Amino acid sequence: MNIVSIIEHKKNHQSLTKEEIQFFIQGYVAGDIPDYQISALLMAIRLNGMTPEETFALTDAMIQSGDVVDLSSIEGFKVDKHSTGGVGDKVTLVVTPILAALGVPVAKFSGRGLGITGGTLDKLESIKGLRVELEMDEFIANVQNANIAVAGQTANIVPADKKLYALRDVTGTVDSIPLIAASIMSKKIASGADGIVLDVKYGNGAFMKTEEEAQTLGQAMQEIGEAFNRKMKIHYSDMNNPLGRFIGNKLEVVEAIDVLAGNFEKTSKDLIDTCVDVATDMYNMATDNKPTAREEVLAVLENGQAKEKLFEMIRLQGGDVTDTVMNDVAYKVAVVADKAGVVQSIDAQQIGEVSVSLGAGRLTKESVLDFDAGIELVVKDGAEVAVGDTVAYLYANKEISAAIVEQALRAYNVQ
């Protein structure tokens, strides 16, 4: 067996065997197979696809490339969630404390943002002192004591994915459903949860542009999870408009806390509905479809217990709970409507690009974030505006150019 024959097989539309998949994953992680040969194989997979059996074997080989987290010392059904990413997506910050307040242990490994998609770890690190790099003993102890921990993955969880994703990112092979499914599910399975709720986004602000593409990806991930004996639930959500009213790391923390405190008037219905739906799915999974699941989710928002769980997690991870408010910024610029009408939509892709330009997101892994930078959407889709009305505010600690303001205004489709 050799890598050239494996490339030839996939190039010629043949299914790869479990042994061939294990061979190339093990060889690549060990450094025995060079990038240029794996690049050729990835492109063949991107063009010719993989069967469900191949995708399962790829996921399994990637899991076996590193450590698997053992959560057996934590009592109860451990439930995890994953979002495929979007603009203004702070759902993890809301749903994990809800589940913890309801007595369900949540041991959550999250990631950082790159490009227009924000990362949960970046949002948490906008809180002074908060640590997201936890030793496994501390991570498990926090879940045992408070039902909640959100941290970065250890270096040796699915190392194959780290190498493969970096290569896919620069070879035009990111948009392959088998490769996306194996990437996400290898990390979720290796993270040790008993059940997984996947929030699959679609639209111009998401990776999957149509609902049909999202459903194809969701189905592939569900099949993988069930093959590994995990309970699975797929939630689909629209990312043609940004989620919530705020985009940016500290701004999204503040908005999440408003949801957790039941201050629904400070946010928007789309964010509330998504958070309640995902949290209800997670709670149903952990309780075998408890009839009062949705009512109990809403109750811990209204009585403040969910907010207190987030604050408990912040304190346990070294964070300052008083630093969960909007900071003063050097520049705050209004975006003003130049015509009257009804806001038909807000282009999430454009808004995401504006947030990156302001300093809220990364263009490269080395980019330094401005945690205070971001966007406040004063009005959202469906709102009526007149000429001169403020539709958004831009925040940054550097001067905001007229071109950035103009791009933010172009994101608003007013008819």
TrEMBL record:
<keyword id="KW-0808">Transferase</keyword>
<dbReference type="GO" id="GO:0006213">
    <property type="term" value="P:pyrimidine nucleoside metabolic process"/>
</dbReference>
<dbReference type="GO" id="GO:0005829">
    <property type="term" value="C:cytosol"/>
</dbReference>
<dbReference type="InterPro" id="IPR018090">
    <property type="entry name" value="Pyrmidine_PPas_bac/euk"/>
</dbReference>
<dbReference type="InterPro" id="IPR035902">
    <property type="entry name" value="Nuc_phospho_transferase"/>
</dbReference>
<dbReference type="InterPro" id="IPR036320">
    <property type="entry name" value="Glycosyl_Trfase_fam3_N_dom_sf"/>
</dbReference>
<dbReference type="InterPro" id="IPR000312">
    <property type="entry name" value="Glycosyl_Trfase_fam3"/>
</dbReference>
<dbReference type="GO" id="GO:0009032">
    <property type="term" value="F:thymidine phosphorylase activity"/>
</dbReference>
<keyword id="KW-0328">Glycosyltransferase</keyword>
<dbReference type="InterPro" id="IPR017872">
    <property type="entry name" value="Pyrmidine_PPase_CS"/>
</dbReference>
<comment type="subunit">
    <text>Homodimer.</text>
</comment>
<dbReference type="Pfam" id="PF07831">
    <property type="entry name" value="PYNP_C"/>
</dbReference>
<protein>
    <recommendedName>
        <fullName>Pyrimidine-nucleoside phosphorylase</fullName>
        <ecNumber>2.4.2.2</ecNumber>
    </recommendedName>
</protein>
<dbReference type="InterPro" id="IPR036566">
    <property type="entry name" value="PYNP-like_C_sf"/>
</dbReference>
<dbReference type="InterPro" id="IPR000053">
    <property type="entry name" value="Thymidine/pyrmidine_PPase"/>
</dbReference>
<dbReference type="Pfam" id="PF00591">
    <property type="entry name" value="Glycos_transf_3"/>
</dbReference>
<dbReference type="GO" id="GO:0004645">
    <property type="term" value="F:1,4-alpha-oligoglucan phosphorylase activity"/>
</dbReference>
<dbReference type="InterPro" id="IPR013102">
    <property type="entry name" value="PYNP_C"/>
</dbReference>
<feature type="domain" description="Pyrimidine nucleoside phosphorylase C-terminal">
    <location>
        <begin position="342"/>
        <end position="415"/>
    </location>
</feature>
<dbReference type="InterPro" id="IPR017459">
    <property type="entry name" value="Glycosyl_Trfase_fam3_N_dom"/>
</dbReference>
<comment type="similarity">
    <text>Belongs to the thymidine/pyrimidine-nucleoside phosphorylase family.</text>
</comment>
<dbReference type="Pfam" id="PF02885">
    <property type="entry name" value="Glycos_trans_3N"/>
</dbReference>
<dbReference type="GO" id="GO:0006206">
    <property type="term" value="P:pyrimidine nucleobase metabolic process"/>
</dbReference>
<comment type="function">
    <text>Catalyzes phosphorolysis of the pyrimidine nucleosides uridine, thymidine and 2'-deoxyuridine with the formation of the corresponding pyrimidine base and ribose-1-phosphate.</text>
</comment>
